[in-house]
Amino acid sequence: AQSVTQLGSHVSVSEGALVLLRCNYSSSVPPYLFWYVQYPNQGLQLLLKYTSAATLVKGINGFEAEFKKSETSFHLTKPSAHMSDAAEYFCAVSGSTGFQKLVFGTGTRLLVSP
Amino acid sequence: EAGVAQSPRYKIIEKRQSVAFWCNPISGHATLYWYQQILGQGPKLLIQFQNNGVVDDSQLPKDRFSAERLKGVDSTLKIQPAKLEDSAVYLCASSLEGSPRGGYTFGSGTRLTVV
After folding, report:
1. What is the pLDDT of residues A44-68, one digit of tens each?
2. Closest-CA residue in chain A for B43?
3. How many CB pairs under 8 A join A and B?
4. What's the pLDDT tens digit per position in B6-34?
5. What DSSP letter does each residue of B10-77 carry, written as one string?
6. Pair A42, A36: CB distance under 8 Å
7. A28 CA: distance to closest CA in chain B (Å)
8. A62 CB neighbour count, 10 Å cutoff
9. How far apart, in whole angstroms, are the C-alpha atoms of residue A70 and residue A36?
10. Contact B100 A94 (CB under 8 A)
């Protein structure tokens, strides 16, 4: 079974500041890990994914995440926040073999102030 | 390519009424998913189809929820009768293969309010 824990339901940053959204996972098999973003009244959009290749993954809009097996973490970062980054971010995990489902965390709302 | 289409976008019904949601996945995507997203929570998988067969419906409340995927393309999700706790956004997603490795494509969702 897989699960993810997102630390912090809300994160506030100033425009231009570092963004750090935390995600820890639990998985009984080698995992695939994902970050999705959700803007108001929209579906989820894939930001980036880890599928057992490079542990540092770069995604869209300047985001990146690092898979750390020893820490069971997959934190999302962006060096400089932009107002347009304000949204809900979901970390998700799945197994890596056969038919698998995405299991989502509870989400972190990113607030960006001018 | 066209995205995942869902309708309606919004629906308000009274408890004990029935409601149906429709999803048209990306052309050629064999796997289709229905997720329920309750306010303040992450999406939860209700049912997963591979073509027109069910792969996982372990979290589908089968006493009131039903879903079908005719001819391995479009899908409908039905709730009958609805309860207040069914108020949520229902998201449909599709993927080319059964693994999430390639990433899912989500529709914009149907927001259901049960009063």
Report:
1. 999 999 987 789 999 999 999 999 9
2. A104
3. 71
4. 999 999 999 999 999 999 999 989 899 99
5. EEEE-TT--EEEEEE--TT--EEEEEEE-TTS--EEEEEEETTEEEE-TTS-TTTEEEEEGGGS-EEE
6. no
7. 17
8. 14
9. 23
10. yes
